[in-house]
Amino acid sequence: MRIGLVVGNWKMNGGLASNAKLLARLADDWRGEVPRRLAVCVPAPYLAQTQAALGDSPVAWGVQDVSEHAAGAYTGEVSAAMAAEFGCRYAIVGHSERRRLHGESDLIVAAKAGAALDAGLVPIACVGEALAERERGETGRVVTRQVDALVAGLGDRVRECVVAYEPVWAIGTGRTATPAEAEDVHALLRKRLAEAGTGDVTLLYGGSVKAANAGSLFAMPDVDGALVGGASLDADEFLGIARA
Ligand code: 13P
Description:
The structure is a single chain. By secondary structure, the chain is of the alpha/beta class. It has a single domain, classed as Aldolase class I (TIM Barrel), CATH 3.20.20. It is 41% helix and 15% strand. It contains 10 helices and 8 strands. Helix 9 runs parallel beside helix 10 (235-242). It binds 1,3-dihydroxyacetonephosphate.
């Protein structure tokens, strides 16, 4: 189902004291007053804190990764079922930082999305091209390969995913894709997903989204919301994006 959605990805940031302030602000200030949902994906050690702080609020929460395995001898991994026990709604899978720094392939990302779905979580599956790929004119080919792998791995269940387009060159760089650049790729992804039988998947844009540029991105017909890194650590910025 296509919904308006803004998700914060805290990445490896936070601490008990700063989280408490940020989560309390979100719980106090967000009333779900616009037709957009709000969520934060926090580091796994803070799930209990997040659940306690947001439990009665309309703000949802999730994890930034899950294992593709259900359980077993996988030291350091967190399963989707464990995240679900802490009330998570979302699980980011295939973030470019995990693809790049942890060697996650398209196949593994699809398996992780499947594991999240098996545990009742909504996967937020990330796709996006590197700068060199964009400069070689390969953006369409790269994101098509990534989304096709998701469809191949999940079949019909891809309709239960959220897909996030995050051009790697726009992440943490302050260089946002223009609304037209984002729309081009979102339209391509939507067409590809429609060919696979599901055109109404929620599509988020991510990469240097701020309160100041969110409105023009959200005005694009195929941009349903945002996956926000740095700006999600600042309550005013994050709420500003949610209300843009
Ligand atoms: P920034 O918003 O910090 O560019 O990060 C985007 C991102 O990677 C969200 O997953």
